[in-house]
Write a structure and sequence with these properties.
The complex is a heterodimer of chains A (225) and B (81). Chain A is an alpha/beta fold and 225 residues long. Chain A contains 6 helices and 8 strands; from the N terminus they run βαβββαβαβββααα. In chain A, α4 crosses α5. The longest helix of chain A has 21 residues. In chain B, the strands form 2 sheets. In chain B, strands 2-3-1-5 form a 4-stranded antiparallel beta sheet, covered by helices on one side. In chain B, strands 4-7-6 form a 3-stranded antiparallel beta sheet. Classes of the chains: A alpha/beta (225), B alpha+beta (81). Chains A and B meet through α4, α5 and α6 of A and β1, α1, β2 and β5 of B.
């Protein structure tokens, strides 16, 4: 059944969030303790599957945790399959990186879950701090506050709350930043200096016209400076 | 002539306030951005802005014929390229 009446065009942007993001685990016991018992994420689905397909696919269990909003975090456990790579190297259950890889790069791949407010953020902090996986950092960024830990598989988990809603001008700024990023990374030796120079050109080209299209913005913003 | 852009959001207000108080800097608006222009190098003292690190190091939105020659815990300095 269509949500839309006949003839009504659907929007261009139709996706509705994360159905599931999936990761391998070699330690389902710890994974279940972390997500179900510590964080209290319900197990909402699992698949027990005999290996199939053209590859030598092992038998596996695919299991899912409810992470709110109808979204799910999922894991694969493969019977008879062992972690790959040098287990003393930085990395996680999915892959190991070369020795000496800095933490910032390893942690760049992570998942961040949203909570409503400070009370909820501190509740998850309390749950983690009482567990085998205490919070490693609590950080106030520009517009968000986050706690971080690593799950039993080495995946970095962030739980974050917004300190204020994202404003329309920040969406514009993001669009101009990424346009500038695509331009400078298409050329030689990309740098922040080149990005900020290109972005200034885009600001001059687009920002005034953007503001003119925002009803009621001009007067409100002028009061700020 | 050094010229830079700062997005007008509450977190950047400290930078804009410090710039506003500097008689050598001219501020005008380009859409939701504030354009800061100066005959001499633009120098913003971080402590005067009250900005925390994450805000301080992401405050510059654009550079026009200019280059950042200092951006550390003490100051931001933007000079003509």
């Amino acid at each position: 059944m269509s949500r839309n009446s006949p003839g009504q065009a659907r929007p261009v942007h139709r996706v509705r969030g994360v159905d599931h993001a999936a990761f391998p685990t070699f330690d389902p016991n710890a994974t279940v303790r972390f997500y179900r018992d510590v964080l209290k994420f319900p197990i909402v689905h699992s698949i027990c599957a005999a290996g199939w397909g053209p590859e030598r696919h092992p038998d596996f269990i695919h299991f899912f945790f409810d992470i709110g909003g109808g979204d799910r975090l999922a894991f694969f456990y493969y019977f008879g399959w062992s972690p790959q790579g040098d287990q003393t190297a930085p990395g996680d259950a999915w892959a190991r990186l070369p020795h000496g890889t800095p933490e910032f790069f390893k942690n760049s791949r992570h998942i961040a879950l949203n909570v409503q407010d400070e009370e909820d953020l501190l509740e998850y902090r309390r749950r983690l701090d009482e567990s085998e996986w205490p919070v490693e950092m609590q950080v106030m960024h520009e517009t968000i506050e986050s706690i971080y830990t690593h799950d039993p598989n080495g995946y970095m988990l962030e739980i974050t709350r917004q300190l204020r809603p994202v404003t329309p001008q920040e969406d514009l700024d993001a669009q101009l930043t990424i346009a500038a990023l695509c331009d400078v990374t298409a050329g030689p030796a990309p740098s922040m200096d080149k990005l900020l120079t290109r972005k200034a050109e885009l600001i001059v080209e687009h920002a005034a016209a953007w503001e003119a299209e925002q009803p009621g913005r001009r007067e409100a913003q002028r009061e700020l400076i | 002539m050094p010229r830079m852009y700062v997005l007008q959001v509450p977190e950047n207000q400290g930078v804009l306030d410090v710039a506003q108080q500097d008689a050598g800097l001219a501020l005008d608006q380009v859409g939701p951005y504030v354009r800061i222009t100066s005959a001499a190098p633009i120098v913003i003292d971080r402590r005067a802005t009250g900005c925390r690190h994450a805000v301080w190091y992401s405050a510059v939105a654009g550079l026009e014929n200019s280059v950042i020659t200092q951006h550390d815990k003490d100051a931001l300095r933007v000079e003509a390229r």
